[in-house]
Design goal:
alpha/beta; six-stranded antiparallel beta sheet; six-stranded mixed beta sheet; 58% helix
Length: 552
C-alpha cells in the first residue's frame, strides 16, 4: 500500500507530505481546492510520460516521491535483475521532472518505463472519469471477464495468443511470398547480379579501405621514409660524432663525479636508462630502414583494390559498412524470393493447420467465457441490488466473431435499470450515478481475487445521493477490507466512513497555494457538516455528529 506521498514544487504545491493508512483514506475539500492534485501525483508517479507543465511556476523541477509498503509481492528477483537495492518491505519511488527530462528511480536506482509499468500493475488501480469511459467501451469488457476467469482459462488464453501471433506471422510471410513471386525475370536477374558483384569483392571488414590507404601512403613515400629513418639511425649510432658516442663520454664524466658525490647516482642511472632507450630506438630505425622496399607490385595491387572498393561504395553506399549492409539486405531479399517461389503452397498448408488449431482453442475458451459470463452477471446484479438499483438487470453478452488476438468472442455488458426497458449496452443506458455503481460492483467482486494493493476512486459519488450514498459507502468500507482505498468524495455519508480524513484547502494571497490537513475530532465534524449542508450550522453539525456516532 502507499504509506507516504511527498511533493515538491508540483503544480500549486511548494512542499507537501501526506501519510496514508491502511483501510479507507478519504479526501475532501471545496470545489476547485485541488483535491485531484494528490490523485494525479500518485498516478503520474507510475506514468510513462509526464508533462513539464506540472513544474510549479518559477521552479526548475518538480519531485514526486511515493513510499510503498510491500507485504504481498516477492520482488527480490525483479529487483536483482534490475540492479535495485532490496529494502525489505519498503519501496521508494521517486520521479523528478525537469524542463528537459523525466527520471524515475526505485530505491535510488534509475529504472525504465517497462519496470514502472510492471510495478503499477501490482500496486495501483485508479478509477477516474477516464476509467469510467473505459468501462463503457465493449473492448474493455472482455478484459474484465477474462481477468475474472483467469484461474479457469487464463493459461489457455495465453497459449492461444502465442499461437495467434505465430499465425499472423505466417499470414505475413505468405503475403510477402506472393508479392515476391510476382517479380519479373529481369528484376530477379538484376538482384542476383548485385548480390554476386558485392560477394565477389570479398570485402575484408568495414575498415579495409582505411587500412589499404594507410599502407598505400607508406609505399608511395618509401624512398623518403628510408632516407629519414636511415639518417636518423646514423645520427644516433655512427662510428664518429654520433649522439650515443657523445652520451658515452658524458656517462664517463658523470661516473667519475659520482665517485666524489654519491648524490649524483640518480643522474647517472637516468642517463644509463636514456642511453638504453636510444639504443633500442636506433635498432628499430635501422631495421625499419633496411626492411623498407619500394614494392611496385604491391603498390599496384592496392591501387586496383581501392578502385574496386570505391566503385562499390559509389553504387551501394558511401562507406564499406553501407556496402556490407546493402549486401545483407539484398541477400535476404533474394533468399525470400527463392523461398517464396518454392514454398507458397507449404505456407498455405501451415496456415490452414494453424487456423484449425486456433479455432479449436478459441471455441473451448468461448464456452468457458459464456459459463463465467453467466456467473459474473449474477454476482454483479446482486451487488447492484445492494447499491440501490433493485430493479436493474445485468447481463454479459458473448457473441461469436472472426478470430482475433483474444479469441472468437465479442463481449459486451448489457444493463436495464427500469423494469419496462429491455437490456441495452451499458454506454447507452446508465447515468453517471449508475455507471459509478456498476463500476463499484465490479471492483468489489474482483477485490477478493486480485492482488492490487491500492485502489483510488476519483469522485465515485458522481450522480448519487440519499440511500444510494449510504449503499456506496457501505460497499467501499467492505472493499477497504481487501485493499487500501484512497478516494475523493463530496458526500458526507461516504466521508464519515473514513479511517483517515484529509482536507485540501487552496489559499490565494500573492500566489496560489494548496495545503493538505488531516482532520480529527471537531475539525472533522465541521468538514462533514459543510459537506452535508453546504454551511456549518446547528443542524448540519448535529447531522455530522450522528454520522460519526454511527461508525462507533
Amino acid at each position: 500500500m502507499i504509506k507516504q506521498l511527498k511533493l515538491k514544487d508540483y503544480i500549486l504545491i511548494d512542499e507537501l507530505t501526506a501519510n496514508f493508512d491502511a483501510g479507507l483514506n478519504v479526501i475532501t475539500g471545496e470545489t476547485g481546492s485541488g483535491k485531484s492534485i494528490l490523485i494525479s501525483a500518485i498516478d503520474l508517479a507510475f506514468a510513462p510520460r509526464v508533462s513539464k507543465d506540472v513544474i510549479k511556476t518559477g521552479s526548475e523541477k518538480a519531485t514526486i516521491e511515493l513510499v510503498i509498503d510491500n507485504r504481498k509481492h516477492n520482488l527480490s528477483q525483479l529487483f536483482e535483475e534490475n540492479g535495485i537495492d532490496d529494502c525489505g518491505n519498503e519501496i521508494v519511488l521517486t520521479k523528478e521532472i525537469t524542463q528537459n527530462a523525466v527520471r524515475t528511480r526505485i530505491n535510488g536506482t534509475l529504472v525504465n518505463q517497462d519496470f514502472i509499468k510492471t510495478l503499477r500493475s501490482l500496486f495501483l488501480d485508479i478509477h477516474s472519469q477516464h476509467q469510467t469511459y473505459s468501462f463503457l467501451q465493449p473492448k474493455y469488457h472482455i478484459v474484465l471477464l477474462d481477468e475474472y476467469a483467469k484461474e479457469l482459462y487464463g493459461k489457455e488464453l495465453n497459449e492461444y495468443r502465442m499461437k495467434y501471433a505465430g499465425y499472423k506471422k505466417l499470414l505475413e510471410q505468405l503475403e510477402n511470398a506472393k508479392n515476391s513471386a510476382n517479380m519479373t525475370e529481369s528484376q530477379l536477374e538484376f538482384l542476383q547480379f548485385q548480390v554476386n558483384e558485392i560477394d565477389a569483392a570479398q570485402i575484408q571488414g568495414e575498415d579495409e579501405d582505411e587500412k589499404l590507404n594507410a599502407e598505400l601512403e607508406v609505399l608511395e613515400n618509401a624512398e623518403k621514409l628510408k632516407e629519414l629513418t636511415g639518417s636518423s639511425y646514423w645520427a644516433l649510432n655512427s662510428d664518429e660524432g654520433s649522439i650515443l658516442e657523445a652520451l658515452t663520454k658524458i656517462k664517463q664524466n658523470i661516473s667519475k663525479a659520482v665517485s666524489f658525490d654519491q648524490s649524483l647516482e640518480p643522474v647517472e642511472q637516468n642517463l644509463l636508462d636514456a642511453m638504453e632507450n636510444l639504443k633500442e630506438i636506433s635498432s628499430e630505425l635501422r631495421d625499419y630502414s633496411q626492411n623498407l622496399d619500394n614494392d611496385t607490385e604491391r603498390l599496384n595491387e592496392i591501387q586496383e583494390r581501392l578502385f574496386l572498393l570505391d566503385k562499390l561504395k559509389r553504387k551501394y553506399g558511401g562507406t564499406l559498412a553501407d556496402v556490407l549492409s546493402t549486401f545483407e539486405k539484398l541477400s535476404e531479399e533474394l533468399s525470400s524470393i527463392e523461398f517464396s517461389t518454392q514454398n507458397i503452397e507449404e505456407l498455405e498448408q501451415k496456415i490452414t493447420a494453424a487456423r484449425a488449431e486456433l479455432e479449436k482453442i478459441a471455441s473451448d475458451i468461448s464456452e468457458k467465457r459464456k459459463d463465467y459470463a453467466k456467473v459474473l452477471s449474477v454476482y454483479i446484479q446482486e451487488k447492484l441490488e445492494k447499491l440501490e438499483l433493485p430493479k436493474s438487470r445485468f447481463e454479459i453478452s458473448v457473441k461469436q466473431k472472426e478470430l482475433s488476438s483474444d479469441g472468437c468472442d465479442d463481449v459486451e455488458f448489457l444493463i436495464s435499470t427500469n423494469v419496462s426497458e429491455d437490456l441495452k449496452p451499458l454506454a447507452k443506458v446508465a447515468s453517471g450515478g449508475e455507471i459509478s455503481r456498476v463500476m463499484l460492483a465490479i471492483k468489489s467482486i474482483f477485490a477478493q481475487t486480485d492482488d492490487i494493493d491500492t485502489v483510488i476512486f476519483d469522485e465515485i459519488d458522481t450522480g448519487i445521493s440519499g440511500r444510494a450514498s449510504q449503499s456506496v459507502a457501505d460497499e467501499i468500507v467492505e472493499l477497504s477490507k481487501y485493499h487500501q482505498i484512497i478516494l475523493i468524495t463530496h458526500q458526507a455519508i461516504i466521508a464519515s466512513k473514513a479511517d483517515k480524513h484529509f482536507y485540501v484547502k487552496k489559499s490565494q494571497t500573492d500566489e496560489t497555494k494548496v495545503e493538505v490537513y488531516v482532520l480529527k475530532d471537531d475539525n472533522r465534524i465541521k468538514a462533514l457538516a459543510e459537506l452535508a449542508g453546504g454551511d456549518i450550522n446547528d443542524t448540519s453539525m448535529e447531522f455530522a455528529r450522528s454520522l460519526i456516532a454511527g461508525q462507533t
